[in-house]
Structures
1.
Amino acid sequence: MNSLLEVRGLTKLYPLRGGPLALLRGERRMLRAVDGIDLDLAPGEILALVGESGSGKTTTGKLITLQEQPSSGALRFEGADVANLHGAALKAYRRRVQMIFQNPYEALDPRHTVIQSVMEPLEIHGIGDAASRRALAETALDQVELRPASRYTGRYPADLSGGQLQRVAIARALVLDPRLLVADEPVSMLDVSVRAGVMNVMLRLSRELGLASLYITHDLAVARAMSSRIAVMYLGAIVEQGPTETLIAAATHPYTRLLVGAVPEHRIGHKRIRIRLAGEAQALTSSPVGCRFAPRCPAATELCRSVPPPRVQLTPEHWSDCHLAGDV
Amino acid sequence: MNLRRYIISRLLQLVPVTLVVIIINFLLVHLAPGDISTILAGDTADPAYLAAIRERYRLDRPFLEQLWRYLVQVGSGDLGVSFRSREPVYSEIMSRVPATLLLVGTSLALSVIVGTVIGTWIARRPGSTTDSLVSALAVGLFSIPVFWLGLMLVLFFAVQIQLFPAMGMTSVDGPREGLGRILDIAYHMVLPVLALMTVSVGQYVRLARSAVTEVMAESYITTVRAIGFPDRTIMMHYALRNALLPVVTVLGLQLGLLLTGAVLTETVFSWPGLGRLIYDAILARDTPVIMGAFIAMSITVAIASLVTDLVYAVLDPRVGL
Amino acid sequence: MGPALLALTRRWAFMISAVIVMITVIIALTVPWLPLPDPNGMEASPYEPPGAAHWLGTDNYGRDVLARLAWGAQLALVVAIVSSAIASLIGIVLGSISGYFGGLIDTLLSRTIDVFLLIPSFFLVLLIVALFGSRLEFTMLAIALTTWPRSARIMRAQVLSLKSRVYVQAARAAGGSHSRTLIRHIVPNGLAPIITDATILMGLAVLTEAGLSFLGLGDQNSVSWGRMIFDGQRQLRIAPWMSIFPGIALLLLVASFNLLGDGLNEVLNPQLRRLTARAAQKPAVDISEVKPGAGETILDVSSLRMSYMLHSGPIVAVDGVSFQLRQGESLGVVGESGCGKSSLGAAILQVMAPNAMTADGDVDIGGKPVLRDGRRVTKDGRDTIAGLRWTTASMIFQSAMNALNPVMTVRAQLIEAFRLHRPEASKAQALARVVEVFGMIGIPVERLGSYPHELSGGMRQRVMIALSLLHEPKLVIADEPTTALDVLIQDQILGELDALKRQMGLSLILISHDMGAVAETCERVAVMYAGEIVEMAPTATIFENARHPYTRALLDALPTVSGPRRTLAGLPGEPFSTGETSPGCRFAPRCGQAQTICGTERPPRVAISTDHDALCHFPSGGTA
């Protein structure tokens, strides 16, 4: 595959605070937020990264946009290693890789007008003069369907709704003409009626501009609507990855199957049976002995608890880190 | 963390405060215009005393050695010697502490109780006329210069209607012991306590009011209302208890302001406490006493804040001992 | 008392303070040209009481008190402005650096700030002035050097919170430098509380200078109010006016600074305004004066209207809602944020916010009248709802919202709630019941002694459910019980509710923004828009044969994991804002099928079948 982004063994450890006394004794526990993940993203492709809170999906987004420094692992963008960029090279990378965040209500500086916010990345990178920046910003507003752009340019964030704010945030990311967009739960705080509009804008941009996206979400239904491939994350690791429809219809990892089954929705003529799940996910401070999902897995065997699961390649596009994946 | 470990770690935090205060003292004396030995011994000191002071603070030695020497001295409780009385500053201060403690303690207790009651009372209907008026009045109260209020109290109660004594802690011919003495002191305390309490009560009114108002807007208050607890119970049992936490937190920090007020009040009423000592020291430019008082006051406030932190930790399970 | 008048009284205090400060500023600026005697001139006779020649009298040297007061204003303002400006500036710089960069710098700076906050500033100022001499510059510098930690602490907290804002992260992610982000985005947005506190610092500085002067440490060359009181102290018996007037001047100026700070704080902090808003309730009505309800349903709501009092005026949150709930039936109330669904739940149990009131409508719970024409029904002077809460009808709140008391153990809270309605029960009996309900919803008994913050979100929500079941109610209203929970936990909680409903024969109202959550738990669904129920029908009908354009638009916008993959359709326009008034249908501006009549006339409630109705002029026959 001709990769835009190539992630190999990406890891992020956070030291846990144990107080001054623990520090004196030399105790240093590390939270394994992202624990050696592999991802590939082709130009123009949308990959959804799905996981519950604490799965490390947001940290992954921050690592890829280099807002956080990886503890280890490789990060290649357009073939070049970018994991240790700094200075001008980092700034240039940030032009190519943009991010959209979850909370639209904090997305814009309340003291800046819409046009000021959208023009800001251009100013940071010293692109064009005032007039051409303005023109570029207005084009970006038009691309996110805030039309006519002149209706929005002079307004302040307080006058806009959540959906409009998130569109402005997308426009601000677009104005630098990036190749990759990392979107962290961009619609989870929006009401259903405006959510679809924002999602459609992102889909259209990907199609028309060839913009690749890493779409981070907790919601499988949203992931299905947005992506061509899905990677499922659990406690810092990707446990299953595959084409969207295959993964939802024929998941092989028990965790993915539970996630798909737990989505509450009206299923015509179908009453599903709830599986009682043991416990809640506990953050990992050391590499697990066996499978990280084994303590909660309804199908776990002794093997699962003692040996790390192998990567089972089901099709060239679909794999699952599970001892039982081959049996399904 | 358990309570003991928490206490130890908090006690350790007293060290930097004490160190900083001592170092500030030391630096200020060195930066001040004039000869250090004269500052510490007074303008009228005889050569022998000046020499003794130089020897005492090792003023002929390098800067850092002097600092070390000073730290060791203060650390062992030696705050220098008052050149007015030629008494150790430490014992001068300690002899005045009880009177100040009596004044400050009484005022603090009264203003916390009265302030919390009034603050809780107006928080029952935040935004009402009573609330607005009492809140504005509370601001007015802590804007009063306490020394001026003291003078006004003297003018009215001691000069005009001659109900309470204007100065001192005891009557010249009053009883020397037993209940009589206690009553005599209490009689002399009325005006200074009234002055000090009046200016500090406003803070607690406001604190209690905003704390109770905020707690009443919390979701768990809606829960207990839905369960059916009567308003009175909710107010007294839930809101007040949770609202006392912020009041406790600021007690320690507020003590600094209260001590300031006490010094000024004591000056007005000739109350034989620390404030009077400081006032007399200022008049005589008795620097060692002023420096000693600064250290003593700072450590007092630091300890008070430590105690309130501990109380808070016990009251609020979220501190996570 | 109306909120408008209330805001006015607040503003009065603010206005008076502003006027006092302005007058002081004007006096201070113009004092050399004012027709006043020389403040240091000793022409007049001493101890002259206030009169025509000397309005405020003369002092022991025959100096005019009024003239000295006017010159003292100048000094007070200079001290106030210079000291607080220096202190704020130091605070802003150090606080910003500390909060923004974190790490070792922050540890060092914030420790320093903590230490300096503990130092009683007056005594340090005293020492500085005693050592360096009583010059005004030293006094002001000393005040600034002892008060900056206040501003620094505020600024640090501001920066810490602003730093995680999305727009700051976005500016960094776009490649903006630290200094640019700090100067363009963080400092300007963090200044408001610093400015508020600066006015309070001004008052503090004036008081400190006055206190110093009163102790004889004031600048000998200038006229200070504190110095005037110091002089007057010894003449208190002969010339009380010498101390009275400067004291009043001090009090007025300092109080004005403080009230200005208060007022600014309130303007800049909408949270404070929200806390103080209150709505007048309609008078209660005695049960003997009202018609009893039909009595077959567990809940009967009719034409319920509820509104909130805001400082900008009232807004209607629930607008004429009617429905009935049979024993054992479950109803899902869905809608987007601000549609009034949560207000509806609060109004039924009469646990609204203090600024909310029921304007109209009837509510009967278990056949007992609770509300008539928006008035609370009372029996023997006690609200009838009080006798129904928790024993007949209880509520499950969203646990993420701090719905449990943080300083009490879970056990203590449940035992108290049990014994409130069963005062005869012993502690042991109460505990037994608590253990029983914990068992019913799968909370391990060892969790009993936990405080809420020690539990996971899912566990807290289970505790909320246990709490609601303590007295075996007939009706439970669950307000967003699974919002903010992860999907697997949400599924479990919905499962518990479903099972309990069937085991106990509970009637359930599930309020949710999530169509999916109600789809699997409720038999009937009511869709709310702009305070109204726009469509109500059995669950399958809502999903497969919705008639209201809004319901259908919601379904078209909803992504799913089951069924064929389809393109989602977004709704045009923006959600209805509660301030709008429209003579026609409230959904008309966003409706794809709106006709002229939709914009001009209120739509009728059209019955599609016996258990299906829609509030629409054109409830077209849609198919799934």
2.
Amino acid sequence: MAKMKFLCDEERCIECNACVTACKNEHEVPWGVNRRRVVTLDDGVPGEKSISVACMHCTDAPCQAVCPVDCFYTTDDGVVLHDKDMCIGCGYCFYACPFGAPQYPQEGAFGSRGKMDKCTFCAGGPEEDHSHEELEKYGRNRLAEGKLPLCAEMCSTKSLLAGDGDVVSELFRNRVVRRQGRQEAWGWDTAYNVK
Amino acid sequence: MMRVFFLITVMISLSACYEDAEITLHQAGVYKGKLDTHSQTAEQREAILAKRFGQVQTDR
């Protein structure tokens, strides 16, 4: 059975933020909530690297373990989702998550936290597939449409990969072998016939 | 006498510095929300998504 995973190849990421924009647009994510973001390491220093980060849909998800109302579940595809009707917005999952994935919309006049929102791997939620409720609460369910997450599909350098863990790791392994430890300038093989 | 008292005081104060090295491990509870139903089986989805991956995610 497929286990869906994200992989960001930091050698290819050009910090264009297209993945962030694609995600926000596809799911109409509210203002102040970022399901995905691009982080730059050693910004401004030669050799800086950027990576696109969102919920990694962990195999043994810490958010799932600490949730006091047990609103998290893992689908057959290995995607970690949650039921927003049960979420109480306590923030425990935010403290447990090593990637800072859980986000909380601001609700009310005193800035109280709303229900947690995070990347769904474009797999919607526990509502009926393609229903208005699912779209409203979790965003579009692209997996049910036979499509992969838009952030990865939109990535122009194919830095961000999303799919079955075995297939993704095989693709990445081939890239690493091809690079042979050298830094890879994306497109040079094609454009300049560099081997 | 003072020396013994000093030693006892030091031992008591040091014993108060004990730190529990055991960490709290949490096990995931049983999901209590709505059941997530899919129109296709996991195998069907896997085949469809594998095909899609070949179309849009492969290296150029």
